[in-house]
Amino acid sequence: MNTVKTKTGQRLAYFLSAGDADKPPILFVHGFPLDHRTWSGVTATSRIEIKVDLPGFGNSELPVGEGSMEAYAAALADLLDDLAAQKAILCGHSMGGYVCLETLSRYPDRVAGLALVGSQPLADTPAKIEDRRALITRLQSVGISAVEGMAEKLGFGGVGHELFYQIIGDQSPAAAVFATQAMMGRVDHTRELLEANIPKLVVHGAKDEMVPFNAYPRELRDHGVRVEILQQVGHSPMVERPRTFSTLLSAWLNDRF
Ligand code: MLT
């Protein structure tokens, strides 16, 4: 494990694997309420791989104050600064994809490419915001067990539930509250996704019920986005089908970088 101190003074943990230093590194960003371990089955991109624990999750410390996508994006920029990486390819799962889109919007010069996995660019609906408020109340009253039930739903048919259960159980309720606040306050990044002139990849499970694919705009492919839909896969392709996911990702990286 490596750590960096963010500009707001917290420890940010990340895991680094060796690779070709002449190519832009790839930075993997996990979803809610998880950590870097969700990417453990992903291998074989010949470049430097960085798997981060978002602020508050895994081994990273939680910043003070309300959760925001801005805080997460700033932490990723601090991490790239520490690694002296001007640009990275960002690969985000679900909430991690929201963080990558926020990073693209705030720090476009730091993003060499974008891969969204079980994610989407829209903001929350009013009904979703109400659900999130209720979740915050439950997290504050019963703790992380308020989200343990997600372990069954993150993979289609419960695939990966043991790993998810273990990861979720290791997280602090305060980190989950911060992340929930960040998700409910996020803005629509459809325009940035469509207009960014960088290689873009969307990987989505056909059986994803947590973040439906139809939240993407229809003209996704017309804007240069490579779209890979995996049959019999739910919300977490990299855990449910690690080899297929790794092959798709490597093919895209080899083609486009
Ligand atoms: C995730 O899997 O990261 C979250 O469930 C996404 C969300 O709640 O919008």
Task: Describe what is shown at a glance.
By secondary structure, this protein is α/β, with parallel strands linked by helices. It has helices spanning 69-82, 95-106, 126-142, 150-153, 161-169, 173-184, 190-195, 237-240, 242-256, and strands at 2-5, 11-17, 26-29, 49-52, 88-93, 111-117, 200-205, 225-230.
Could you please describe the fold and organization of this structure?
With 257 residues, the protein is an alpha/beta fold. It has nine helices and eight strands. It has helices at 69-82, 95-106, 126-142, 150-153, 161-169, 173-184, 190-195, 237-240, 242-256; strands at 2-5, 11-17, 26-29, 49-52, 88-93, 111-117, 200-205, 225-230. A hairpin with a 5-residue loop joins strand 1 and strand 2 (11-17). The radius of gyration is 17 Å and the shape is globular. The two termini are 27 Å apart. Bound molecules: D-malate. The site of D-malate has 7 residues, from loops.
Number of helices: 9
- Computed over alpha carbons, the radius of gyration is 17 Å
Unreliable residue stretches: none
Topology as H/E string?
A: EEEEHEHEHHHHHEEHH
Number of strands: 8
Ligands in the model, by name, code or SMILES, are: D-malate
Structural class: alpha/beta
Overall geometry: globular
Q: Which band does the percent of strand residues land in?
A: 15-25%
Largest sheet: 8 strands, mixed
- Spatial order of the strands in the main sheet? 1-2-4-3-5-6-7-8
What is the distance, rounded to the nearest whole angstrom, between the alpha carbons of the first and last residues? 27 Å
Question: pLDDT average, as an integer?
Answer: 96
**Can you give the helix content as a percent range?**
25-40%
